[in-house]
Amino acid sequence: MDMNWLIGAIDYGVLGLLGVLSILIVAIGIERIFFYRQVDLAGFQDGKTLELALSSRLFVIASVASNAPYLGLLGTVMGIMLTFYQMGLDNSIDTGQIMVGLALALKATAVGLVVALVAVTLYNALLRRVTVLTLQWEIAHERQAD
């Protein structure tokens, strides 16, 4: 059984997916930042409608934040499987090859963690902005009620 397809699955599948997800969360983050700058709080008569508008698409960032480490771990497990498979085929143990194989396998976990850290930071910053805008809306509507 040829397991060389794992090299492509790790590099293009796992790392490619993590790359696409990182681009997606940054794009959503930028879109949300521009939306928050332009939002007209006075145009919302209902707090729930405002909250829905402000929190739109934030679940995508949260989902990437929680799942990116697992995708990276999947790539690492696949890389370790490939290293062990290649060790079994060679009939000789070269520690240099083993270390290189394991180091390359760990790159998927590293990328997954970086993507998750960016996503968590972005999510928390955007969620804070949602809270601030919602509170500003509530304060303005309390003053109008008085």
Descriptive notes:
The protein has about 150 residues and is mainly alpha-helical. It is about 85% helix and about 0% strand. Helix 2 runs antiparallel to helix 4 and helix 3 packs antiparallel against helix 4. The model has no long low-confidence stretch (mean pLDDT about 90).
- In total, the number of strands is 0
Task: Give the SSE string.
Answer: HHHH
How far is the first residue's CA from the last residue's CA? 76 Å
- The assigned structural class equals mainly alpha
Short synopsis of the structure:
The chain is mainly alpha-helical and 146 residues long. Helix content is 87%, strand content 0%.
Looking at this protein, list some descriptive labels.
rod-shaped; 4 helices; 146 residues; 0% strand; mainly alpha
Which helices and strands occur, and which strands form pairs?
Elements: H1 5-38, H2 47-55, H3 58-90, H4 95-145
Helix pairs in contact: 1-3, 1-4, 2-4, 3-4
